[in-house]
Amino acid sequence: MDVKPLVVENLTIHYYTLEGIVKAVRNVSFSVEKGESVCLVGESGSGKSTIGLAIVGALPGNARIVSGRILVNGVDVLRLSQKELEKIRGREVSIIFQDPAASFNPLFTIGQILSDVIKYKLNVKDKNELRKLALSALRMVGLPDPERIYNSYPHELSGGMLQRAAIAVALSTKPSVLVADEPTTMLDVTLQAQILDLLQDLRRKLGLALVFITHNLGVAAAICDKILVIYAGSMVEYGPVDEVLTSPLHPYTKRLLECVPRSSARVGRLKYIPGSLPDLRKLPPGCVFAPRCSEVMEVCKSVEPRIVEVKPGHMVACHKYSR
Amino acid sequence: MHATSILGDNVGLLDVIDLVKYFPIRKGVFGRIVGYVRAVDHVTFSIGENETFALVGESGSGKTTTAKCILGLLKPTSGKIVFMGKNIVELKGSEAKWYRRNVQAVFQNPFLSLNPRMKVEDIVAEPLKVHNKDLPKDEVKKIVYDVLERVGLTKALAKRYPYDLSGGQAQRVAIARAIVLKPKLVVLDEPTSALDVSVQAQILNLLVDLKNELKLSYLMISHDLSVVRYISDWVAVMYLGKIVELAPTEELFEKPLHPYTQALLSAVPEPDPKIMKSKKRIVLPGEPPSAINPPPGCRLHPRCPYAKDKCRVEEPKLIEYERNHWVACHLYTRR
Ligand SMILES: Nc1ncnc2c1ncn2[C@@H]1O[C@H](COP(=O)(O)OP(=O)(O)O)[C@@H](O)[C@H]1O
Ligand SMILES: Nc1ncnc2c1ncn2[C@@H]1O[C@H](COP(=O)(O)OP(=O)(O)O)[C@@H](O)[C@H]1O
Ligand SMILES: [Mg+2]
Ligand SMILES: [Mg+2]
Hints:
The complex is a heterodimer.
Chain A: E1 6-17, E2 20-32, E3 37-41, H1 48-55, E4 63-72, E5 75-76, H2 82-88, E6 93-96, H3 110-122, H4 127-140, H5 146-150, H6 159-171, E7 177-181, H7 189-206, E8 209-214, H8 217-223, E9 226-231, E10 234-240, H9 241-246, H10 251-259, E11 308-311, E12 314-316
Parallel strand pairs in A: 3-8, 3-9, 6-7, 7-8
Antiparallel strand pairs in A: 1-2, 1-4, 4-5, 9-10, 10-12, 11-12
Helix pairs in contact in A: 3-4, 4-6
Chain B: E1 14-27, E2 32-47, E3 52-56, H1 63-70, E4 78-83, E5 86-87, H2 93-102, E6 103-106, H3 110-113, H4 120-131, H5 137-150, H6 167-179, E7 185-189, H7 197-214, E8 217-222, H8 225-231, E9 234-239, E10 242-248, H9 249-254, H10 259-267, H11 273-278, H12 309-313, E11 319-322, E12 325-327
Helix pairs in contact in B: 4-5, 4-6, 5-6, 6-7
Bound molecules: adenosine-5'-diphosphate (2 copies) and magnesium ion (2 copies).
């Protein structure tokens, strides 16, 4: 059997702060096949970026991975030495972010940055070879006139072009896993559609395992095969995108979908979720969503629900479904 | 109904007539003008009483510049902005004050628009103090607390500073400050773009309720078409400083005429896999060109799948193609 490019098992991550321990991610598990895309969906502060950073080994210093495993092509990256990790990071796993400008050094041209990554990660020394690889990476992401882009500085490119360039850098080392953290959030819808198309196209062509992070359920519908809904660091629902979006099981997923205005039809009054996210330093006992849940039962207030498979491949963490 | 008013039928609450705003681009030590950013280029629309009029379009299309001209924060290069029959560009003294009192604004980032050194209650009281100097202190306090309650903020929050608020709470404070003088028009520039969907829903509902209760009109600026469909009565679509289509909301969403509107609508992702699969995508290649040297003819022509020779040379006029449905595109000729 093929080894999955990415397996995340029971991942729990805390941040240590002066005000206490932020339990940002608790017991999250999912896996991504070759050519598959899995979306992590949740509101801001739910722990999506923390998971993404953990996968690429780039968590900030005050973060502790308390438990769990992250297997990249079968290797547990959490058990690797710094040196071994360096080999995997940016090579077998890459990441792109919301603001591409932030990940480019403004003093270097796109070509210099790209060549540097390829030189360092793929150990290519020959100058001509480097240039060829860099240009082909730029071509792959659909940038017009790669020669000109190669010689451009980041600030000379528009937001859409810069995000394409960031994708080129991320994929130049031919990784098997790409983490995309809200890569279209800063872009206008028509550019967003272009970038989503590009990522779809590339993951099919290259057999990429794509972890796509977004707060936008519409974007999730557009890009992913499976969807993992997170609330306050806990996974509440996980399953095929069609199922989760058309027959959601968890009350949080249901409510979240009712909050979203639609461009396809005029909706009546929007529903909303009363209350706000819990303080991750002082989590309530029981289900994290219980204080805001309209279907709350007595048991929810004291016992944390386990995630159970309700239909094949469709899992939910909610007492309504546990027998 | 009111859209025809731009041609002289009847006046709306606010009429923007042939508005132009160019920003000069200067170079060198003498600040020689070497060109212009044509941010708003002959824009005409009208907002009726108790109506929500939306301006949509991608970033850089001129929405905020239009709003700033209306708010008197920018001086138009040319054109008129007529509020209740008065051209606001020429207003002075007490009339200017009357205008400022009646036209308020809420912006995308409340943390940037609320004074960080003032308590919530003082932020909301400030417009009252400026416009109503003789109001007794306890009266001010009563009004402020009533308004805070109306926008869903508790008494305890009144003593806090903006940095102590969540994004949703801060936006409620901004809304409270905007309505405390009982204005006629509120300009909403991307009021929910920085918020999570569950919070966005609360703010949108609040805006709808306030509009009905206080008989407000809104100029709603957004790049989010789903939000626009939910909240507005009329929609104008802008592209590179021009209105390319204008219609009642349902009409525009159900029967978009302009290729740009069609592309924009087709690109909106919806959390419904069935719709996403059946959606016919109209892809516009590339990105909007700069507003410094906009393309000649129709500004969309370099990206338009239907562009003909005429589109490259002749600028299409905004015509009323169907009753109340205006479009600027050579595919449509007045019938
Ligand atoms: N370096 C950090 N130190 C302390 N807390 C952090 C740090 N980074 C993130 N957090 C907290 O962890 C939680 C999850 O954050 P994040 O993963 O960024 O969420 P998301 O990407 O879903 O918005 C939030 O409560 C956030 O404030
Ligand atoms: N103060 C300014 N000086 C020069 N150019 C400006 C200024 N403000 C806006 N612009 C330009 O005007 C155009 C329209 O901008 P804006 O009205 O902010 O668009 P939108 O709100 O639709 O994103 C853009 O090209 C922008 O760069
Ligand atoms: Mg994030
Ligand atoms: Mg703007």
